[in-house]
Amino acid sequence: MQAAAASSLDARRLGGVFSVLERVDRARDVVEFAEHTLEALGSVLGYRDTTFFAGPTYDGLFLDPSPLLEGRQRTLIREYRQRWDRHDVFARPRAAAQLHRVSAVSVDADDPATPADRAYRDWLGGHGIESLTAVHVAPGGAQALFGIFGPRGTVDPIDLAVLRLLGRQLDAIARHLPGRAAAEPPAVALPPRLAQTAELVSGGLTNAVIARTMGVTEDTVKKYVSKLLARTGTRNRTELALVLQRGR
Asked: The sheet that has 49-55: what strands, in order across it?
């Protein structure tokens, strides 16, 4: 399948794939991998509005508290967090199954939508985003999506073939990368409350859900998470979840 996809692409587009991979191959960990890929999606392939969401599970990645964002996605993330993360088109089982099978899936404004998808797509359309594309990778045993957004037709069928070829290669690179080069699981046993927080964070739960589960305030959960970040040497919840998953 990979050879068939490559044979349908011209030399220029294949050159773009190799150029992206050359930049990404220098990454020492998942965070650098994501940063290099987003930069290359813009500078090499010309996509300006991109994201990287990661989590220990596929469902959990949509709750990533610290996604990497390029372009106007930065202005939409708060509203996405408050209302739309669980309504994301790519969170649907059918889209998830397709992404695991072919690496990249694109949805355009003209594509049929279920009622459950329509509200989310209308919200994005109100911000001038009518094309949604996701590329699936599994870094270090976790789950992640690169998102590409833009006006209608941002990703045409040939572009999608490029992204599917690229996605398979990115996945092969990402699977062998650590969450962060200097990060290691805690060397000593955690106190019970921190251990419980670590387990819930690694499950991709938000602070609000963790607070309800543990019977504490969100401020207390934030303090626990800060202590876990300090103990593991990680910079954000995404790195922390990846490190905790490796330490199980």
From this structure: 68-70, 49-55, 143-150, 131-137, 104-108
How far are the Cα atoms of 133, 209, 215, 240 from residue 204, in angstroms, in the given order?
23, 10, 18, 10
Domain range for 217 is 192-232
Cα–Cα distance measured from residue 51 to residue 212, given in angstroms and rounded to the nearest whole number: 29
In this structure, are 125 and 215 located in the same domain? no
Does residue 243 form part of some domain?
Answer: no
Measured distance CA(83)–CA(220) in Å, rounded: 24
Coil, strand or helix: which one is 194? helix
Q: What does the alpha-carbon distance between residue 9 and residue 165 come to, in Å, rounded to a whole number?
A: 10
pLDDT in tens, 163-221: 999 999 999 999 988 865 444 444 456 788 888 888 888 777 888 889 988 999 999 99
Q: What is the distance between the alpha carbons of residues 51 and 151, in angstroms, rounded to a whole number? A: 16
Q: Is residue 53 part of a domain?
A: yes
For residues 49 and 71, is the Cβ–Cβ distance under 8 A?
yes
Q: CB within 8 A of 33, min separation 6: which ones?
A: 24, 27, 139, 170, 173, 174, 177
In a domain, 15, yes or no: yes
- Per-residue pLDDT, 180: 53
Considering only residues 78 and 17, tell me which one the structure prediction assigns the higher pLDDT.
17
pLDDT in tens, 139-169: 977 899 999 999 999 999 999 999 999 999 9
